Amino acid sequence: MSFTPNDPFRLQSYFYQLPSELIAQEPCARRDQARLLIVDRRQGSIRHDTFDHLNKYLPLNSHLVVNNSKVIPARLLGHRSTGGEVEIFLLNALKDGYSYEVLLRPLKKIREGETINFGKGINATLENKEKRIVRFNKKNIVRYLAQVGHIPLPPYIKRPDTSQDVQDYQTVYAKEPGSVASPTAGLHFSKELIKQIKAQGHHFHELTLHINYSTFKPVECDDIRHHPMHTEYYSVKPAVQKSIFKVKEDSKTLVAVGTTSTRVLEAMAQSKVYTGSTNIFIYPGYSFKMVDALITNFHLPYSTLLMLVCAFGGYDLIMKVYKEAIKERYRFYSYGDAMLLI
Fold first, then answer.
1. I need a labelling partner for 267 at 20 to 30 A (CA). Which of 78, 82, 128, 301 fits?
2. How many C-beta neighbours within 10 Å does residue 193 have?
3. C-alpha closest to that of 61 among 172, 188, 204, 243
4. What confidence score (pLDDT) does residue 39 get?
5. What is the DSSP letter of 149?
6. Cβ distance 93 to 118 under 8 Å?
7. Residues of the chain with pLDDT under 50
8. Is residue 157 a part of any domain in this protein?
């Protein structure tokens, strides 16, 4: 295992070697029984526990902000008229209500104008091969995805999705359909744990950020400051936005559950806009204006998510934390374990 020298603007500083067996392929049997690594940023200390004991480490009267976006079954498996198999992954809906920008395999073999059949009376025609745009025969295809779609497990989970993933890859508070990846820090909360945390005097606030496929795109610029950050849609109800700003005014602790909640909170601090889109890129040197504590999973090398966590916890400390997590055999990525940064 080796980590590169401390230069937080250099891409190679965000590489680490992870044994493949530490990439979680299945969720924890009970979502709130995942392991929890607790990091005190001021003391530089590390503790180990399980997620169901989260309340022990939250500052008094904390306000937790969660992303209630719901994962859609964005992966569709169909057939060409020749019988050949085709996989489509939905990326962005276009304004006409019928068309989508997609990932499509095998792109080389499919001709423009060719129709792909998914069963259940649903098909799509490849309208623009260069831009990977397909047009469905039904408007607002999201309404039909439960019939023909598959849960879009991340590419590092090397198995087919199952009916159990429909529940496991969704937070218990998911409400607003639109994400093609789960806000995974929230996967550790059970309804029972949320109830317990509230009973201890803490509060929950919901916002929405729809995660798109670009979340898996690694940074490729040698100087990370030149990375073109992707854009994602977010929405915060006016009453929730007002409550969140009141928390800050009253100097209470704002706990972001996940990097997506963090991005919305920090974007909101900059623009004061509660519905829109953001391409905020948070990396070391960023001055946080809203978030006081962070709950997050362990992230991929070279990812903007890892850079955000390094910005919040400090590069040297987070690299130390990752070494410790690997040494202690924590489970990494979407179905893996969690950390709390306070």
1. 301
2. 19
3. 204
4. 98
5. E
6. no
7. 1
8. no
Contact 36, 338 (CB under 8 A): yes
CB-CB contact of 255 with 292 (8 Å): yes
The answer to whether residues 54 and 133 belong to one domain is no
Q: Which residue has the tokens 């204006």?
A: 289
Amino acid sitting at position 336:
G
What are 7's two structure tokens?
Answer: 């230069």
H/E stretch holding 275: strand 275-278
- For the segment 127-162, what is each residue's pLDDT rounded down to a tens digit? 999 999 999 999 999 899 999 999 999 999 999 999
Helix 315-327 vs helix 304-313: crossing angle, to nearest 10:
110
Q: What is the DSSP string of 30-86?
A: SGGGSEEEEEETTTTEEEEEEGGGGGGGSPTT-EEEEE-EEE---EEEEE-TTS-EE
> How many domains in the chain?
2
Q: How far apart are CA 233 and CA 211, in angstroms?
A: 8
Expressed as residue numbers, the domain containing 81 is 75-150
Within 10 A of 113 (CB to CB), how many other CB atoms are there?
Answer: 9
Q: Say which DSSP state 227 is in.
A: -
Asked whether the CA dihedral 74, 79, 80, 86 is positive or negative, the reply is positive
Beta bridge partners of 117: 79, 123
Find the CATH number of the domain harbouring 109.
2.40.10.240
Q: pLDDT per residue over 159-197, tens digit each? A: 999 999 999 999 999 999 999 999 999 999 999 999 999
